[in-house]
Amino acid sequence: MSAIVEFREAGYSVARDQGSSEILRELTFTVEAGETLVLLGRSGSGKTTALKMINRLLSPTSGEVLVEGKPTAAWDPIRLRRRIGYVIQETGLFPHFTVAENVGLVPRLEGWSPERIHVRVNELLEQMGLPSREFSARYPRELSGGQRQRVGVARALAADPPVLLFDEPFGALDPVTRLDLQKQFLALRNALNKTAIFVTHDVREAMMLGTRVGLMRNGRLELLSPPGEFLQAENDEARAFLAGLDWKTEGNGPSQ
Amino acid sequence: MDLRSELASLTVEHLELVLVAVLIAAAISIPTGILLTRRTGMRRWVLGIANVLQTIPSLALFGFLIPVPLIGGIGKRTAIVALVLYALLPMMRNTLTGILGVDPAVRESAVAMGMTGRQVLWQVELPLAMRTILAGVRVATVTTIGTATIAAAIGGGGLGVFIFRGISTVDTTQILAGAIPAAVIALLADESLGWLERKLSPV
């Protein structure tokens, strides 16, 4: 395995009225090809900021972030972003595009032929459990939250990018739909062998989806380990998250 | 010339004034509105100037322009300049509001998909702001139809010719011959641009 994304003492701070405030401090870790790294943390822990530095929606104010061995600052941002799928909560779909147009967006930007886009879109929709005959011509407002999210995942996968970023994609869904999508995520990951970086504040989701879990607090990475080790961690923030897990699953453990 | 044929020619003249003024104003204010979404620093100044222009009483604005070289003087050109100045604000403001009103999550995902700035503008921001921008065009058009009646005061022609003649000769028929067609044109423009707005709005 080789590092596909690498953070090297990456920091991010924003100017405030008095001095500046640090959102991320000297973040250093690597993401190996094919793994799913989950960044877990409370609101404001810096996990989304870290994610956005990978596709250069934000640039580190100190240190650097490398994608495929090249600092993001050295990439053409447009090329970089088209190699990285991005899924956010359901609001990210274009309301004025049909499902097919949303999914076919990046292939169209990349100049694929209409026939090739059509075939690819249908293939992805079927794969996501959205029969294209029924869904292609619909608009996002005509879909349920779970269906919108599937379209969002299909859109991110469309041009077959090697890396996928997920920013709390299932956060707004009801628990049953969320579980459906989490299972589908696992199935897709096993089928497609993509690298994914997944941000969540749901420890259960982190345990279920991550091949490694990174725990973030106050802009630092406190812990980075496989879920099994994470469960045994002594770190108090990790314990705080895991306490929620024990209570929620009533001792059934996370391995479902 | 009888009233009927004069009415026809003045109506055509009125429509010309409005059409030319609104088109010029749109060509200035919509791109400016787009620019202002990118330049927060300029926003306050430009909107402030457009706002001040809007507060000058229309008759006074026509008067102020008469002595101005190149754009001033007596006649249509001056009238059109004044009408353009009036029509700027609603379209500029609505362009700005419409684009700023696009869901930040939609804009962010457009950028994250690897769209260039121009693609984000043409394929995402403008289509989603279209309804608000057209509402601005509608407001500007309807007010311009009314304000254009004052153009007659500086020799700009249009339906205002009837109104000013009616006032000076105390002839109510003449006043109504100018006022009623102007009102009817305004209502028709309002309706048809409203229809276009609904038709073209993407969501």
What does the secondary structure layout of this molecule look like, with pairings?
The complex is a heterodimer of chains A (256) and B (203).
Chain A: E1 3-15, E2 20-32, E3 36-41, H1 47-54, E4 62-67, E5 70-71, H2 77-82, E6 84-87, H3 99-103, H4 105-109, H5 114-127, H6 132-135, H7 145-157, E7 163-167, H8 175-192, E8 195-200, H9 203-209, E9 212-217, E10 220-225, H10 227-232, H11 236-249
Parallel strand pairs in A: 3-8, 3-9, 6-7, 7-8
Antiparallel strand pairs in A: 1-2, 1-4, 4-5, 9-10
Helix pairs in contact in A: 5-7
Chain B: H1 3-38, H2 40-55, H3 58-65, H4 76-100, H5 104-112, H6 117-147, H7 160-168, H8 172-200
Helix pairs in contact in B: 1-4, 1-6, 2-4, 3-4, 4-6, 5-6, 6-8, 7-8
Describe the structure.
- The complex is a heterodimer of chains A (256) and B (203).
- Chain A is of the alpha/beta class.
- Chain A is 39% helix and 26% strand.
- Chain A is built from 11 helices and 10 strands.
- Chain A has helices at 47-54, 77-82, 99-103, 105-109, 114-127, 132-135, 145-157, 175-192, 203-209, 227-232, 236-249; strands at residues 3-15, 20-32, 36-41, 62-67, 70-71, 84-87, 163-167, 195-200, 212-217, 220-225.
- In chain A, helix 5 packs across helix 7 (145-157).
- The longest helix of chain A has 18 residues, at 175-192.
- The radius of gyration of chain A is 18 Å and the shape is globular.
- With 203 residues, chain B is an all-alpha fold.
- Chain B has helices at 3-38, 40-55, 58-65, 76-100, 104-112, 117-147, 160-168, 172-200.
- Chain B is elongated and about 65 Å long.
- The relative contact order of chain B is 0.15.
- The interface between A and B is medium-sized, with 25 and 18 residues.
